[in-house]
Amino acid sequence: MTAEAPGPFRTADVPLTDPYPHYRRYRESDPVHLGPDGSWYVFRHRDVAHVLADRRYGRGPRPSRIPADCPHLRRTVVNWMVFMDPPHHTEVRALVARSFTPRIVEALRPRIRRLAAELVTALAEEREADLVDRLAAPFPLLVISELLGVPREDRAWFRERAVGLQQATGARVARRADGFAVADAAARDLDAYFRAELARRRARPAFGADLIGAMLEHGGAAADDDTLVGTCIHLLTAGHETTTNLLCKGLLALFAHPEELAALRARPELTAGAVEELIRYDSPVQMITRHAGEADRLGGHTVPGGSRVVLVLGSANRDPERFPDPDRLDLGRDARRHSGFGMGIHYCVGAPLARAEAEIGLTELLRGLPRLAPADEPVRYAKDLVFHGPERMVVRTR
Question: Domains in the chain: how many in total?
């Protein structure tokens, strides 16, 4: 240890507006920290990378905190790839990887650009607006709808259920007493919707036209209906909130660094590389969890088998051992080894799409709104340290 330990780590003590100084104290003094909840919190990049690459660490028990009276939510979540371990995870990931190819993402780019441009045009009509509500939240949902082949007339319904499903996250449940019930109802509706889509596609095959058709075409052992439906809903949720946070926090970082914002406006072709640094600088997902399958030495500690291990990605991405001068936003930095999309077998399968959405979304915002700036109203963060980002962010458009 290089400094005095700052005391027990509790997520409730972490400032949502700027968690990084809090992380730094643990990274410097107690980088593999046994928290009061019995979990091991891991703050250094090299230790996070070790856990993500080591097959002895897995997802562990399936989600258990979902109440028994939420059967639709339980069935949905248990079929999410993010909660699977090999060999089932290997089968499902292979199915998605065969279907969700870079070619599909590239083919989507013109439609992604059109959707972003439409939202920016609508945003430009308002002098001040909440960027979350008017663009950052609807944009990735519209893109996922395109990917899954959801008809335009269904998208408002689709968005309402996607937002309802988010009530299952811990922070939102804490703020809304009926959060699990709302999420269960949304899971029920989305389950029925995608089962009907599977039946319709099988009756009149149009394989390969979108992701659902591609997954049906490739089939295999992983393509039972429960898995296919769960995967569709998982892609909806995983690709929605994270991209919303990436767009908002990316803009906040640029607003706070006007010289970098000016450079990006002058050279929009740099946006693709800039997205990697924006993810590193302020990660949309701050923490992920693994379970130790057996005892391991980590950061000078013995982590017993069966332990819950929380990887603090936001801290790892600000580790000076991996990224020199990490608290400085540098859009010219090679940030490709950030852990914002995870690593190893659970590396985010939707990363190419998230990159394309962020690149195109930021490009259209900066091109279409040359005077875009933060408004006087303070940014309000969602009470969620895992899926970390603003729930309200008012901007001036002119």
Answer: 1
Enter the tokens of residue 152.
């335009």
Within-domain flag for 304: yes
pTM for the full predicted model: 0.88
User: Is there a domain that residue 2 lies in?
Assistant: no
For the stretch 41-80, pLDDT in tens is: 999 999 999 999 998 998 765 555 788 888 888 888 877 7
Q: How confident is the model at residue 180 (pLDDT cuts 50, 70, 90)?
A: confident
Residue 301 belongs to domain with CATH number: 1.10.630.10
Give Rg (Cα) of the chain.
21
Identify residue 56 by its one-letter amino acid code. R
Residue-range definition of the domain harbouring residue 229: 11-396
- Pick from 153, 156, 142: nearest CA to 111: 142
Q: How many residues does the chain have?
A: 398
Contact 382, 166 (CB under 8 A): no
What the block records as the tokens of 284 is 């949309």
pLDDT of residue 1: 45
Cα-Cα-Cα-Cα dihedral sign, residues 381, 382, 384, 387: negative
